[in-house]
Amino acid sequence: VFSNLRSVFWGESSRICVSLTPVPRVNFPRWSIECKESRIGKLPIQVPVNVTITLESQELKVKGPLGELSRVYPSEVKLERQEDGTIRVKKATETRRANQMHGLYRTLTDNMLVGVSKGFEKRLQVEGNDLVLSLGFSHPVRMKIPDNLKVKVEENTRIIISGYDKCDIGLFAASIRRWRPPEPYKGKGVRYANEVVRLKEGKAGKKK
């Protein structure tokens, strides 16, 4: 039986014929991810007349009557100074991450210009039996003041809680602080008057 086979190596005769036909090449479609431009990110940023800006590569420095701020931007976005004096934040690459950073860094840039020219403020107020807090959320925080407590706000930054039950005073103060406790790097947030917040060293400090 084996003598009837044709071997490629030995050249023997065979009754079995094997034909080699080329296999067609299969082309798989390439799916491309389309990243839409952020509606917020594409808006131009107006530079106030009392603010000077310095743009060097990926670093922006702004100086106004209230102070100076600077920020280093990631490689996914870039800043451009327009002929009309406005600033535009643009995507440097067409990726999903760049699309996410586009609107974020446009907002952060606008906050820098507003901060050094006009500044920001957080208002605390008492309306009837409610304490109204503006803590940076999209809506004010309203807290019901217990009947046995009195709340007084001084200079928009100090909340004085008084009453005859020390436990209730402590619980209500803790509930206020819980909305925005002090963050560990700059200490911003709601904290007690005698509270000491231990700050952590940021990345910039570690490089020194």
UniProtKB/TrEMBL annotation:
Q: Specify whether DNA repair is a keyword of the entry.
A: no
- Establish whether keyword Electron transport is in the entry: no
Q: Which domain of life is it from?
A: Eukaryota
Ranges for domain Large ribosomal subunit protein uL6 alpha-beta: 47-119, 124-192
Q: Name one GO biological process term.
A: translation
Q: State the UniProt keywords alphabetically.
A: Ribonucleoprotein, Ribosomal protein, RNA-binding, rRNA-binding
Q: Which GO terms describe its cellular component?
A: ribonucleoprotein complex; ribosome
GO terms (molecular function) for this protein are:
rRNA binding; structural constituent of ribosome
Q: What is one Pfam family matched by this protein?
A: Ribosomal_L6
Regions annotated as coiled coil: none
The record's annotation in InterPro entries points to: Ribosomal_uL6-like, Ribosomal_uL6-like_a/b-dom_sf, Ribosomal_uL6_a/b-dom, Ribosomal_uL6_bac-type, Ribosomal_uL6_CS
Which family, according to UniProt? Belongs to the universal ribosomal protein uL6 family.
Give the matching PANTHER family.
60S/50S RIBOSOMAL PROTEIN L6/L9, LARGE RIBOSOMAL SUBUNIT PROTEIN UL6M
Please give the name of this protein.
Large ribosomal subunit protein uL6 alpha-beta domain-containing protein
Source species of the chain:
Linum tenue
Traced from the root, the source organism's taxonomic lineage reads: Eukaryota, Viridiplantae, Streptophyta, Embryophyta, Tracheophyta
